[in-house]
Amino acid sequence: MAATVSLRQGDLVWGKLGRYPPWPGKIVNSPKDLKKPRGKKCFFVKFFGTEDHAWIKVEQLKPYHAHKEEMIKANKGKRFQQAVDAVEEFLKKVKAKQEQNAGDDKGKQVGKKGEGKKAEGKTKKPAGERKRKATGPGSNSPTKKPRDQSPRKRGRPPKEDKEDTAGDSWLLHGHRTLGTEMVLKKPSVTYQAISKRLKVSEEDMGSTSIQAADSTAINGNITPTDKKIGFLGLGLMGSGIVSNLLKMGHTVTVWNRTAEKCDLFIQEGAHLGRTPAEVVSTCDITFACVADPKAAKDLVLGPSGVLQGIRPGKCYVDMSTVDPETVAELAQVIVSRGGRFLEAPVAGNQQLSNDGMLMILAAGDHGVYEDCSSCFQAMGKTSFFLGEVGNAARMMLIINMVQGSFMATIAEGMTLAQVTGQSQQTLLDILIQSQLSSIFLDQKCQNILQGNFKPDFYLKYIQKDLRLAIALGDSVNHPTPMAAAANEVYKRAKALDQSDNDMSAVYRAYIH
Questions:
Q1: Backbone φ, ψ for residue 452 (5° rounding)
Q2: How large is the angle between the packed helices 481-495 and 459-475, nearest 10 degrees?
């Protein structure tokens, strides 16, 4: 950016976002309790099409209008275009407001002129006095524009701040954690809490309260750890995770029960592990992502399993969605051999995994959580540390319980529309304009409308998570009637051979 360009509060800019393309945003006031990072000059930027904010260094910012054509020509992604559209919509609103204010001011001026004529008829002022008044402060002379008519006061962002994003929240929920240092919209977030990557300050009382950690290193780039990384399980989620680890420069050794799935990653630079035990013994941190509690236990306790490769200091991170009892059992056996354990199940789907946009919920050894910093940055949009082992499993089951129940309700509404003679497309059109609007809703309804149930999140796995969530409720004598009803619908869908389709195939349980 040229040294002569001066930026200020309220300006539209392009922000350099590390591994991501420059993204459109606006310089805004930072929260009062969020101190500016020390060192080079930077601005607090709110990005369009996302729910993200960031402190961005001046040299990583470019004026929006001057570089608009250049940026649009270089970036063709759908999410990027959505963000640009959001900027243009914002500009339209600003222009409309300016025109409205100008019209209001013109009306006031005309009114004042009329009043002036009436007053002139009563008492005519000397010419010299009239001239002095016309050029003085507060004058409505057309040759001088009063300060309060400016569309924006210098150094202060326009009031439209609240409406300058038009994107979805899970994306781009938002677009990933973009920029130098992300801040989730939580009033209690402080710079100290987020200035160190994936560092969470726990209270002395062992609180499980959380702070979000962004997915980009403080200098705007990911520096891969020099530790050797192992990864076990290359399913829908694991494949995307490993691909992003490799892209970000990590040294990765992979293993999968079906060995052929490893071939693509070997071509991309990964090493091949012959057994889980071999991977763990040769790597510093080993991640695992498998289908269910049985698979998670077999991976650790089975022949040539993880436990046989554990040595003092070796780190094992289980990213599978399982019940808290399974997690506790695995943690106990790993630690008994001198290993270090972290549970880190991920929220998302295949597309989010491929995009490096997963959300990571972690619990257990906080030191391992910190050691996984660059890995979590590569695979996810944000991560949370939830305290002691088992908390992440509980939280993930609750999240998937809500998601699974919502999907069953969507399918129920679509079928009810059909049988009552209503247009399913019209229903979707209405829903996406309502408060229920989300990427999830849109995608799953599109699956139903197109009859395309290619798996993005297997139906059999969401049913498994519902079953485990119901059991979690039973363990604390808490009712889960909605989840129980949704679970029965998914069981019906499984009986109709929909297990290996996307969760949206639960729709077929209503039409058979």
A1: -110, 110
A2: 150
- What is the rounded distance in angstroms from the CA atom of residue 275 to the CA atom of residue 325? 25
Compute the distance between CA of residue 366 and CA of residue 383 in angstroms, rounded to an integer: 13
Could you read off the pLDDT of 305-319 as tens digits, one per residue? 999 999 999 999 999
All domains of the chain, ordered by start, with CATH? 1-189+216-221 (2.30.30.140), 222-389 (3.40.50.720), 395-509 (1.10.1040.10)
Q: In sequence order, which residues have a C-beta less than 8 Å from that of residue 13 and are 6 or more positions away?
A: 7, 24, 25, 26, 27, 43, 45, 56, 61, 62, 63, 64
Residue with tokens 């930072």: 30
Map 165-214 to HEC letters.
CCCCCCCCCCCCCCCCCECCCCCCCCHHHHCCCCCCCCCCCCCCCCCEEE
Look at phi and psi of residue 383 and say left if phi exceeds 0, alpha if psi is from -120 to 50, else beta.
Answer: beta
- Which conformational region is residue 258 in: left (phi greater than 0), alpha (psi within -120 to 50 degrees), or beta? beta
Instruction: Give the containing element (helix H, strand E) for 104.
Output: helix 78-122
241: tokens are: 């995770």
Task: Provide the 10 A C-beta neighbour count for residue 491.
Answer: 14
How crowded is the C-beta side of 357, counted as CA atoms within 13 Å?
A: 19
The answer to whether 308 and 316 have CB atoms below 8 angstroms apart is no
**Would you say residue 216 has pLDDT above 50?**
no
3-state helix, strand, coil in the chain (%, to 5): 45, 15, 40
In the predicted model, what is the mean pLDDT of the chain?
A: 80
Average pLDDT over residues 356-383: 95
Cα 486–chain centre separation: 27
Predicted confidence at residue 55, as pLDDT, reads: 78
Q: What angle do CA 486, 318, 389 make, to 5 degrees?
A: 80
Within 10 angstroms of residue 239's Cβ, the number of other Cβ atoms is 21
Under a CB-based contact definition with an 8 Å cutoff, are residues 346 and 315 in contact?
no
pLDDT digits (tens, 9 = 90+) for 286-306: 999 999 999 999 999 999 999
Q: Which residue in the block uniquely carries the two structure tokens 């309060």? A: 148
Closest by Cα among 332, 333, 367, 330 to 345: 330
pLDDT for residue 474 is more than 90: yes
The H or E element containing residue 98 is helix 78-122
Are the CB atoms for 23 and 47 separated by under 8 Å?
yes
Nearest to 349 by CA among 321, 388, 385, 308: 321
